[in-house]
Amino acid sequence: MRATAEVDQQPTAFVFTGQGSASVGMGMQLFATSSVARGVWEVADSQLRETYGFSLLSIVRENPKSLTIHFGGRRGAAIRRNFQQLGFEDASGAVVPLLPQITDDTDEHTFSHPEGLLFATQFTQPALVITEKAAFEDMRARGVLPRGFLLAGHSLG
């Protein structure tokens, strides 16, 4: 006997985790095996190197405890301005510099974290976003995203 059956795809949701899920080397297995994921990482890493003077790939792979960004020359001055433009709205609604210690006279700035920079929020969050974006784009490229899928995230995820 032969038979065929049509089965509806079960509802599928992809859930991305928040900040507590970071780990050294996260996303690097997919980076090594997927040209799509590698492309997502390389574009993001290039943008961060150009805009802020650091390699997110190096932080994810090596997790250094500190990193000094130098603001010398024309490129360094542009990077310093980019850091100076980062801000947040305080309780009164005023925009406050995120890194007030970086001024027009700052020659360099050192980021540090006792557990490594991957666990410092300013590096953890972009690393998580890129890890999750790379995984999503890889699934899309392989055609494994079902129709009507849902996305959800916790915290930053």
From TrEMBL:
It comes from the Eukaryota. Signal peptide: none annotated. GO terms for molecular function: fatty acid synthase activity. The keyword Metal-binding does not apply. It holds the Pfam family Acyl_transf_1. Keywords: Transferase. GO terms for cellular component: fatty acid synthase complex. Transmembrane segments: none annotated. GO terms for biological process: fatty acid biosynthetic process. Residues 14-157 form the Malonyl-CoA:ACP transacylase (MAT) domain. InterPro entries: Ac_transferase_dom_sf, Acyl_transferase_dom, Acyl_Trfase/lysoPLipase, Fatty_acid_synthase, Fungal_FAS. This is Malonyl-CoA:ACP transacylase (MAT) domain-containing protein. It comes from Cafeteria roenbergensis (Marine flagellate).
